[in-house]
Amino acid sequence: MKKFQISPVSQEKISQLQQKINDKTKPLGALGQLEYLALKIGCIQNTLSPTLSKLTIVVFAGDHGIATEGVSLYPQSVTYQMVLNFLAGGAAINVFAKQHNINLHIVDAGVNHEFESHPQLLNYKIAPGTKNFLKKPAMTKQQCEQAIGQGATLVKDIHQAGCNVISFGEMGIGNTSSASMLAHFLAHIPLEDCVGKGTGLDKSGVTHKLTILQQAIAKHPMDGNVLKTLSTFGGFEIAMMAGAYLQATELKMLILVDGFIATSALLVAVKLYPAILDYCIFSHQSQEKGHRLVLKYLKAKSLLNLEMRLGEGSGAAVAFPIIQSAVHFLNEMASFESAGVSQAVD
Q1: Annotated catalytic residue, options 288, 312, 332, 337
Q2: Is 337 an active-site residue?
């Protein structure tokens, strides 16, 4: 796997940014989390006047061999059907992206279907889905590294087109099983606390899913190696997202982190390069059971908790106006001096 040049966010402007925030015509701290966001974004961009340019959401799609074990309410064919829905503009992420003027790309990371060419579809297919990790590793080491590299290449291209804020969504029947395994091994969360409803399993379905994943753990003992864990239990879309996070951080882009699957991919990246967290804003806490615990492990707090568990980058799209508000107040709100307003008396 290529080496990424990732360093912690610069603190050079932090005191000046804080002073600029404090000088706005408001009581100290009155804008709450918006002030934290403005400070963080200013530090990431190392400027007192940050900008948000061409927010892009990339939805990575991939099929999972573990889906054949009945760990999802829906058949594997829904993955490719939903990709077609994205391309037709009919999914939730299409609606939210249009509402907030967000650029949207759909990536075939490894869907078990051959798509016709489409201007919004990027073909980075590694294989037509991963292997069933109940029986063998989901992907080879080479496939895993290829997926990480292609995710990085994709982000380079997007950045060169003028984007400095990015988020990643996913689509893949069975991918909450992969995410649960990654959360278990990389964040050391008990498996039963990671496994949730996914696409809507009932209690017996969740029990069956947990049983299948426990059997897979017994078959594949792990030694703490991050890439081995990813290649054994991950998906092509998850590995590609991990590479995309790493490249976005190297380019010092602002990253909006979506829900459970996207955070499990981030977990892989963080284990390889911990400084990546400096560049991340967590948009939405998923209703999927394990997400809250992974956020706790990462010492992260999400902006929103709307009880969604959709994926697709939907949480990032819905949270984006809040992040815009943080940048706008920093850049456009009057200071006490410029407005001729008296400050609080000491």
Answers
A1: 312
A2: no
